[in-house]
Structure formats: structure tokens, C-alpha cells
């Protein structure tokens, strides 16, 4: 039984935020019914994005709406606020929140009091001051960006098919991906596979006409799957005529020309930036301790070090890895840890409210799986190495088991089954990004244009 009334504030609706709130509402069902506990989730989106499915959504293998989980449906016992926490004063137990109505109200952010705080805002893309990147770069972290990228790639094939200018055609059919981690390699693999298939429906665009370039600053890609599988991935990508450039950086993409550190220059209309992430800016607007990389310093029990009633996990938290042989090692900020940390975090909040001993988060890294396109993949799981179809099948099976709710599992499985029976969709719906443009033009106005590939105005 909870010792006193508790207001629990969860900042973020991603892996950690959603799974923590979901477990809390299950563990504290009676307390919620009595009004002893209330749970508020503050999130910029009304859904949780299952990011491992973004590459398949971009390739058209999964419908975008099946990559996301509606929070209001899942967290039916929580209060879900669509907005963002802009500051946290933990000493006073208050968070400053802005919502969709804040600007129209004109009163500024509202202060939301709490008793227990869960900080799980996730991360944002880590960019560098590269000339032209802000103007021409495309991210790959949200479902909007994934679908926008799919539309963009097909649109470039349409441009190449219709132009008479060889320079425009060459730039349209050149696709540069920066970053050799999961996001970059999987997005490149899936989209190249899709574009190769789509080329059969163009009378004057062949797969060999397209240039696909992967730029990675370090000496290998996919470090999570091990050195051997990383080398295999490079070989597999190069076999598909993908130009993999290791120990290479993007120095500029101004004027739609990608300039690399090895001296290569590629006129291109597509630069996809997947070169890492950094902690969410709200962490810097708190009075909580952070490490040198800007993540919250946490204990093995997932409380914020040196404080009480503050908890964190996932990308925002530096959590000690108690299973590591060398001291000082932290858990990797990935989904595998985030989902498991959310369970322990929620349980520890319940233990804390009931005056019970806390649990220690302990999980040995199981390995990783990556898709490289339809029927292609690599995996290194529990010491076993797989490649090709078995790895691809394991990738799908693992993520199907992990995507939240039976509803989403069934819909994704149905889409995969139908994809095996029918041909791929190769339609671009780029007009969805500016749905009022045609009406504004008809009404005598000038069609408004949002910043390219940036539907939320985020960096």
C-alpha cells in the first residue's frame, strides 16, 4: 500500500516513458482507483514510435500507422499531455510544460507539480556545423522523416526519368547516407532494395544508374554486431554496388554537392544524416547531475544519483552496467536496455512508494540483429553469428515479439504476409507533406511551404 498520495510525472513517451507508465498503471491499479496515485505523461507526440521498424516503413513493407502505438489507448489510466517539458526544478518538485495551446493562450509555460519524476525524453539527432547540412540534410529518427525519405527517393527517380539534363539526372540518382550505425545501414539497405525494385517500372532508369554511398568516420560499420559481421556487411553492400567509404567524413553539402574528406565530390539531392544522437536538450534545463556527455548520472537502481524521487533510464541516463567485467562501464543507450530498464524503474517507484527495498538493474547484452533489405541481414546473438536469410528472419521475429500490443503485432504480421503475396507499393505521396497547397493555390493564395524534411521544426 502506498504510504501517501503520489503524483508521478513521466517526461517522454518513447520506449522508457511508455513502458514505465504502462507498468505503473498495472502495478498501481488499486491506488489509481482510490485516487492515491495519479500518473501524468508529457510527450510531444500522442504515440510511441517503434524505431526498429522505421527502415521497413520507409521501404513500404509496413504501413506508417503500424509503426506507432497510440498512447491514449495503451495508457488509459494515465493523463497524457501532448507537449514538452522545457525545464525541471527538482528542488521545488515542479516542471515547466508547454502544450499545443500554450502559444494561443499567451500565458507562457505552465508549472506542473509532482512528487516522483521519471525523465525519459530520449535523444535528438547529433549534428555538426557542416555547410549545407541544415538546408539539405534529411534525418531518420521519426516516422515522419522515414515516410518523407521514401517519398523523396521515389520523387528523385521521377525527376531522373523525366529530365533531359544529365547533370540533374545524375544528382537525382545519387543518394548519400552519413553514419554507419543501425539507422544508417538499415535505412540504406531497405531503400536501395526498394529503389532497385521500383526501377523495373521506369523505362529509362536502371538500378545501375543509381549511386548509393555510405559515409562512416570510423574504420567499421555496425560495431554492435561484431567485427566479423561488420566486415561481412561491408562486403555484402559493396556486392550490391553500394559505395562504402570508411574513415571518411562529410565536409560539406552546400549547393547540393556532397564533399567528402577523401576529396570525393558528389552532386546529389539526397543527404541522409544518421551520424549519432545526443541527449535531449531538456536535461540541460534541470538541476539534476549529468555526466560529461550530458546524460543524467544514475545509480544501478535507476534513480538519479545524489537525489531522491527522481528516476531516469534509456538515452537520457548513464546507467552503470553491473554485468561488465571492467568498472565504470555504462549500459548502451539502445532499445534492448531501455525496455528492460523501464520495467525495473517502474517496479522501483512502486517499491519506493511502499517503503520496500529497491531492485538493481542487471542485464547482460544479448547481441544485435540488423536488416539489410528484403531477405538480407546480419546477426550476432548470444555468441552465434548469422547472415543472409536466417539473420533477416531473426530480425523480423525478434522485433515482432518486441513491438508493443497484440493489435500492432497482428497488423504487422498481416502486412508481412500480404507483402509475400502481392507486389511492392512504389507510390510517392509527397503531397501529404503540404496537403493544403492545392487548395491555397485554387483560392488565389501562395502555397505555404514548411521547412523541408522537418515537419516538427526540430533540429
Automatic annotation (TrEMBL):
Keywords: FAD, Flavoprotein, NAD, Oxidoreductase. It holds the Pfam family Pyr_redox_2. Residues 440-459 are annotated as: Disordered. Residues 449-459 have a biased composition (Pro residues). The keyword NAD applies. Residues 7-341 form the FAD/NAD(P)-binding domain. Belongs to the NADH dehydrogenase family. This is NAD(P)/FAD-dependent oxidoreductase. It comes from Streptomyces iakyrus.
Amino acid at each position: 500500500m502506498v504510504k501517501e498520495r503520489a503524483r508521478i510525472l513521466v517526461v517522454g513517451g518513447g520506449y522508457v516513458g511508455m513502458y514505465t507508465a504502462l507498468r505503473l498503471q498495472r502495478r498501481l491499479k488499486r491506488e489509481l482507483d482510490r485516487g492515491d496515485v495519479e500518473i501524468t505523461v508529457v510527450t510531444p507526440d500522442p504515440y510511441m514510435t517503434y524505431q526498429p521498424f522505421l527502415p521497413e516503413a520507409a521501404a513500404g513493407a509496413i504501413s506508417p500507422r503500424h509503426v506507432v502505438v497510440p498512447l491514449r489507448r495503451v495508457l488509459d489510466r494515465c493523463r497524457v499531455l501532448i507537449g514538452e517539458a522545457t525545464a525541471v526544478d527538482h528542488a521545488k518538485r515542479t516542471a515547466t510544460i508547454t502544450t499545443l495551446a500554450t502559444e494561443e493562450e499567451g500565458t507562457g509555460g505552465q508549472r506542473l507539480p509532482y512528487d516522483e519524476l521519471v525523465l525519459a525524453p530520449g535523444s535528438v539527432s547529433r549534428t555538426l556545423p557542416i555547410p549545407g547540412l541544415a538546408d539539405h540534410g534529411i534525418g531518420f529518427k521519426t516516422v515522419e522523416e522515414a515516410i518523407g525519405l521514401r517519398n523523396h527517393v521515389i520523387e528523385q527517380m521521377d525527376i531522373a526519368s523525366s529530365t533531359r539534363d544529365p547533370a540533374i539526372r545524375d544528382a537525382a540518382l545519387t543518394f548519400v547516407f552519413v553514419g554507419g550505425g543501425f539507422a544508417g545501414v538499415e535505412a540504406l539497405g531497405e531503400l536501395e532494395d526498394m529503389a532497385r525494385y521500383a526501377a523495373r517500372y521506369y523505362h529509362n532508369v536502371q538500378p545501375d544508374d543509381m549511386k548509393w554511398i555510405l559515409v562512416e568516420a570510423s574504420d567499421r560499420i555496425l560495431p554492435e554486431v561484431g567485427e566479423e559481421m561488420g566486415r561481412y556487411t561491408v562486403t555484402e553492400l559493396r556486392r550490391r554496388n553500394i559505395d562504402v567509404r570508411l574513415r571518411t567524413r562529410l565536409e560539406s553539402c552546400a549547393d547540393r554537392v556532397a564533399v567528402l574528406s577523401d576529396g570525393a565530390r558528389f552532386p546529389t539531392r539526397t543527404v541522409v544524416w544518421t551520424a549519432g544522437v545526443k541527449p535531449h536538450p531538456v536535461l540541460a534545463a534541470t538541476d539534476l547531475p549529468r555526466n560529461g556527455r550530458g546524460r543524467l548520472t544514475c545509480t544501478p537502481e535507476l534513480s538519479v544519483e545524489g537525489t531522491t524521487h527522481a528516476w531516469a533510464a534509456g538515452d537520457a541516463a548513464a546507467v552503470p552496467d553491473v554485468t561488465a567485467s571492467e568498472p565504470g562501464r555504462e549500459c548502451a543507450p539502445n532499445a534492448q536496455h531501455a525496455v528492460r530498464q523501464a520495467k525495473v524503474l517502474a517496479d522501483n517507484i512502486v517499491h519506493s512508494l511502499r517503503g520496500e527495498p529497491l531492485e538493481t538493474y542487471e542485464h547482460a547484452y544479448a547481441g544485435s540483429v540488423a536488416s539489410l533489405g528484403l531477405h538480407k541481414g546480419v546477426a550476432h546473438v548470444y555468441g552465434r553469428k548469422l547472415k543472409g536469410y536466417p539473420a533477416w528472419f531473426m530480425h523480423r521475429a525478434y522485433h515482432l515479439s518486441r513491438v508493443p500490443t497484440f493489435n500492432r503485432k497482428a497488423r504487422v504480421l498481416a502486412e508481412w504476409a500480404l507483402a509475400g503475396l502481392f507486389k511492392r507499393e512504389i507510390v510517392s505521396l509527397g503531397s501529404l507533406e503540404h496537403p493544403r497547397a492545392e487548395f491555397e493555390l485554387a483560392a488565389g493564395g501562395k502555397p505555404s511551404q514548411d521547412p523541408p524534411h522537418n515537419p516538427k521544426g526540430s533540429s
